[in-house]
């Protein structure tokens, strides 16, 4: 190594020399031609040195992030983005800084990875009128834990790969263009907790296996699902169920009582359910919302409803229920404590003093029934026509069963003030998240 090389090496290793000795060294020890060359190498004749307080360069991206960024940029090239949702998706930017992308440290690794995609209300559609398929993005980011795409134009099948991802637990495909039968791919995911398929055009029956999955939330309202609910419906551990506004038929399965330890809110409204209500509904000791309005249900209210100590919103409106409104239901603490009991549009014939108190306080709605002495009731002719040919319930013996009557301590709980029901938010197509 020649003398100039050694001198340059010593300069690079000595910060004190660089800041204090360079001028004298240049003037006394280095020939003019060599000094010019050294100034160029060190920076005297080229670009200025960065200031001392310049931040360190950003860390290099992990292989997981590099791969995910490529997938996301390829996806961006296939979509119409009317709201400029992906405007900051650039090739020289970390995907963790992209709009709608959530990153986290991958388990058992120190690497950052794309953990979630939140495209809610982005309004994506396929470029130049092409279909916007779920494949192409979902199956290529195996680190995903959730995928939320409420209010876009996705169609096609769910890639089977996504159901094999080790940490995937939330799928929200609501308010899109999904058609066909229930996506069976969902059933192969053992860790899925949140399933939202509402506001699509899905048809056909619901597979029984759905109710054996360890789901916490099932929202399938506002589709075109039909047929009876599976016999094992009550096996679900879900807390929140919305089956509203489909084409379900047949009775409410008596197995619903098996969901007593978890079921909190359930919406059956806007279907074609028929038959009488099973007494097992009264076993739902944690239920705060129960809505079967706008169906073809009939029969009296089961006496077991007296056991719904936490119920706050009970809606049986627009069916063919008849008989007396049980006083025990009008005494329920959750109803009386600013809750709501809606029985309008049926054929009830009698309310007692406790129920009349709720009518006066506008907690109980009994309009368009057959209750003598109350305003806004059906005509006597309509009431007579229906009540003269009432068909009795096949489970009539059970409608007098009150499972909490004989000192069941598990039912003796004071209801808390009502909060806004979670499930009713699912009836809005552009809802972001429920919880």
Automatic annotation (TrEMBL):
GO biological process: cell wall organization
Cellular component, GO annotation: membrane
KW Nucleotide-binding (keyword) present: no
SUPFAM superfamilies per the UniProt record, alphabetical: L domain-like
Localisation: Membrane; Secreted, Cell wall
Signal sequence region: 1-27
Superkingdom as given in the UniProt entry: Eukaryota
Keywords of the record: Cell wall, Cell wall biogenesis/degradation, Glycoprotein, Hydroxylation, Leucine-rich repeat, Membrane, Repeat, Secreted, Signal
Primary location group: membrane
Leucine-rich repeat-containing N-terminal plant-type domain ranges (all copies): 70-103
Residue span of region Disordered: 411-435
A Pfam family annotated for this UniProt entry: LRR_1
Alphabetical list of PANTHER family matching this protein: LEUCINE-RICH REPEAT EXTENSIN-LIKE PROTEIN 3-RELATED, LEUCINE-RICH REPEAT-CONTAINING N-TERMINAL PLANT-TYPE DOMAIN-CONTAINING PROTEIN
Protein name (Swiss-Prot/TrEMBL): Cell wall hydroxyproline-rich glycoprotein
Lineage: Eukaryota, Viridiplantae, Streptophyta, Embryophyta, Tracheophyta
């Amino acid at each position: 190594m020649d003398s100039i090389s050694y001198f340059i090496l010593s300069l690079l290793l000595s910060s004190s020399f660089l800041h204090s000795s360079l001028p004298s060294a240049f003037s006394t020890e280095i020939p003019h031609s060599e000094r010019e060359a050294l100034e160029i190498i060190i920076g005297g004749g080229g670009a200025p040195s960065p200031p001392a307080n310049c931040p360190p360069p950003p860390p290099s991206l992990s292989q997981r992030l590099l791969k995910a960024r490529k997938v996301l940029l390829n996806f961006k090239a296939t979509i119409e983005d009317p709201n400029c949702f992906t405007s900051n998706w650039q090739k020289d930017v970390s995907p963790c800084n992209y709009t709608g992308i959530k990153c986290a440290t991958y388990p058992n690794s120190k690497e950052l990875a794309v953990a979630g995609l939140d495209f809610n209300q982005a309004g994506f559609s396929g470029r130049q009128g092409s279909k916007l398929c779920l494949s192409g993005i979902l199956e290529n980011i195996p680190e995903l834990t959730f995928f939320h795409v409420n209010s876009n134009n996705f169609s096609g099948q769910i890639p089977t790969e996504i159901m094999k991802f080790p940490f995937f637990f939330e799928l929200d495909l609501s308010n899109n263009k999904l058609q066909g039968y229930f996506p069976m791919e969902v059933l192969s995911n053992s860790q899925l907790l949140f399933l939202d398929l509402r506001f699509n055009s899905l048809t056909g029956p619901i597979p029984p296996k759905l109710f054996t999955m360890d789901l916490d939330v099932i929202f399938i309202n506002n589709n075109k699902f039909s047929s009876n609910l599976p016999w094992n419906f009550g096996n679900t551990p879900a807390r929140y169920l919305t089956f509203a506004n489909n084409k379900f038929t047949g009775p409410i399965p008596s197995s619903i009582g098996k969901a007593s330890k978890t079921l909190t809110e359930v919406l059956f409204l806007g279907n074609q359910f028929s038959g009488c209500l099973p007494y097992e509904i009264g076993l739902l000791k944690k239920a705060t919302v129960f809505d079967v309005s706008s169906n073809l249900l009939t029969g009296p209210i089961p006496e077991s409803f007296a056991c719904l100590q936490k119920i706050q919103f009970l809606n049986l409106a627009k069916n063919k229920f008849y008989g007396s409104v049980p006083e025990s239901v009008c005494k329920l603490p959750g109803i009386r404590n600013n809750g709501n009991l809606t029985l309008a549009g049926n054929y009830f014939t009698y309310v007692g003093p406790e129920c009349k108190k709720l009518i006066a306080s506008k907690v109980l709605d009994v309009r368009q029934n057959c209750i003598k002495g109350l305003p806004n009731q059906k005509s006597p002719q309509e009431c007579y026509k229906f009540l003269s040919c009432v068909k009795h319930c096949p489970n009539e013996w059970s409608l007098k069963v009150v499972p909490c009557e004989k000192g069941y301590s598990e039912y003796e709980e004071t209801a808390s003030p009502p909060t806004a029901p979670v499930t009713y938010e699912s009836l809005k197509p552009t809802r972001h998240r429920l919880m």
